[in-house]
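Page 47, continued from p. 46.
Same chain as before, 399 aa.
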Amino acid sequence: MTDPNTPASATPAASSGPPPAPVTAPPSTQPRPLRVRIFSSLIFGSIALIGVLIVLYAWQLPPFSSAIESTENALVRGQVTIIGPQLSGYVFEVPVQDFQFVKAGDVLVRLDDRIYKQHLDQALAQRAVQKAALANNLQQRRSAEATILLRQAALANTIAQGRKTAADLRRNEDLVADGSVSRRDLDLSRADNAQAVAAVAEAQASLEISRQDLQTVIVNRGSLEASVANAEAAIELARIDLSNTRVTAPRDGQLGQIGVRLGAYVNSGAQLMALVPDRLWIIANMKETQMANVRLGQPVTFTVDSLDHQKMQGRVQRISPAAGSEFSLLPGDNATGNFVKIAQRIPVRIVVDPDQPLVKRLRPGMSVVVSIDTRQSGEVPPDPADDDQPRDEPVRTVE
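Result:
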């Protein structure tokens, strides 16, 4: 329908033309409000500040630096002793089992001792031979002393005979002038006197020989006494070897797995089993950057992974004199090639406080997390070695 007020000629023109363009508002050139810009800046600054604080806290940098120095690079240590024999032989008896608790002196392994018993009997027989030789030396000395007395008597007799022949010679020399004694008798007297002088010299030489024989016997006695002492030492060595056929526990503790069985042949020094005493401690490998305030005697709190992370107490006992890398088999040489700085580890020995219910459940090799409170101080715990009682004999792994 056409509007009557519209001219007829205008209707076709309006219907045939293109549609009019939509009306749009002109672009605004006004900036955002100041409040919106401040709010956006605060949000961005807060996010950046939180990120920086998270990084500082993660690296324990100021203002989040803590007096508690912690590390997960820590293990429980103990005096694990490898038990081995000093002799070679066949295993005659193994009276212990895996993981058994033993006392000091308990027999762990016994070797076949028949050969070593024969060695002891042989040493005893050799000592008897040497003692008999020593007794024979005493008899030889007495015989030599009696021979000296005999030679002295013979010397005295020859001296007396010499004096008699000398007197006869002087008388015959005085009587030969008036013819009372013939020249023949004078010659006989001279011959008898010469024989007497020779007999005295012979007796003196025999006496000196007897004295030298006595000295030889005395000197030989020293050699025989040394032979007896050598035989005594051989007996002691045989007894030690015989006792070493019994491998005993050097101290109280718990055994590991038994690595030897009845009838096996073992060599000297073979590893038969391990003995773990109840004395334990912790070695914490701290970073060198954590050692600035660590001192002896400071209290330590640690958790054990295998004990459901329950907390236990201890104290810093000793600090290693060098970094762990200095004790490695092949120490690093930073003088060649490219250098990358790595924080070194300083081993710290921590003694576990006694009278804690979980101490008996600790085992060497367990992983722990150690935290050292550097704000506190305390007395340095004594060395466990100071508690050992002196022994008459040195401690030996194998007896």
